[in-house]
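Pinned message: reference record for Carboxypeptidase regulatory-like domain-containing protein
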Amino acid sequence: MNRFLPFLLLFSLAGFAQQKSVYIINGREVDSAEMVGVKIKKIDVATGLRSTGMHERGGKRVLIVHLEDEQYNLFGIVTNERGKPIANAKVDTVQTDACGHFYLKGVKAGSRIMISRKGYADQFIDIYKRPDDLLTVQLRKK
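Predicted structure (C-alpha cells):
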C-alpha cells in the first residue's frame, strides 16, 4: 500500500476540476488556477483519508488541502498603476528600495503577504508555491 497521499489528492483534484469546486488551502479558499504547481504535504494514506476533507458546500465540491512545509525566498518589485516603481512600500516585514525592489527570505508556503504604502490601497498576495519569476505587485491609488 502506498504510504503517501499526494497522488490520491492530485487525482482528486483532477476529478474535481471538471465540476464546480472550491479549494481550501491552509484555511483559505483559492481559485483552481492557483492550484497549478502546488506541492501537497506528504502524509500516510490512513491519515489522509481521515483528514482530506472532501465534501459538498452550497452545491459545490470542496477539497481541503494542506501544503508541504516549504520556505521560499521571494524577489519582487512594487509599482503604481503606470508601472513606475514605488519606493518605501511595506512588503510584509521589509520595505522596498528606491527602485521598488524587495527581498523576503524564508517565506512559508501558504503565507499571506501584505503590501502597503500611504496613499495606496493595500494589496495581498498568497504564496502557495515558489514564484516562477520576479513578483510584480501593482498598487492602486486610494
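Pinned by admin. Summary line: The chain has two domains: 6-65, 71-138.
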